[in-house]
Amino acid sequence: MAKRRFTQPELTNAVEDTVGPYRLAMVYRHVPNDEGPTIHVFGPVDGQDREILRFDCFKNAPHIHFGISYLDEPVQMIDSPDPLGWVFEELGQRLPDYLTRSEAGCELPEDWQTATGRIIETFRTVNAQAG
């Protein structure tokens, strides 16, 4: 099977923050036939800084990419009427599970939920202001 092509994300207008060695970034994206906020998770994978997760909270087809920059995994659709709210909930409670599923290991600090909660609140505020 052919490896899918990975495209580096455009983060010029992204809001970013870190949780331990992981960088979370949120940006609004326009793609053919869809648009919406995207949350990227970057961090160490085999000694390199890679894009580990991408949550595309699009209006028409919201979905998740696991190991987007290094695995050839199919996307998982987000089945929620509020994809961004769903992603915030998932990241706040299950970020270690998502890192593990993406074969990225898990190097989160002990207070990861507090740090992630702070980032989520920032993302919520920015998204509401962009409204």
Please count the beta strands (DSSP E, at least 2 residues each): 6
- Helical/strand content category: alpha+beta
The best one-word shape is globular
Largest sheet: 6 strands, antiparallel
Number of discrete domains: 1
Radius of gyration: 14 Å
Question: Spans with pLDDT under 50 lasting ≥5 residues?
Answer: none
Word description of this protein:
With 131 residues, this protein is α+β, with helices and mostly antiparallel strands. The chain has one domain (15-130). Helix content is 29%, strand content 32%. The protein has helices spanning 83-101, 112-130, and strands at residues 15-19, 22-31, 34-45, 48-56, 63-66, 76-77. A 6-stranded antiparallel β-sheet has the order 1-2-3-4-5-6, covered by helices on one side. 28% of the residues are buried.
Give the tags.
about 130 residues, alpha+beta, 6-stranded antiparallel sheet, 6 strands, about 30% strand
Give the structure's gist in a few sentences:
By secondary structure, the protein is of the alpha+beta class.
What topology does this entry show?
Elements: E1 15-19, E2 22-31, E3 34-45, E4 48-56, E5 63-66, E6 76-77, H1 83-101, H2 112-130
Antiparallel strand pairs: 1-2, 2-3, 3-4, 4-5, 5-6
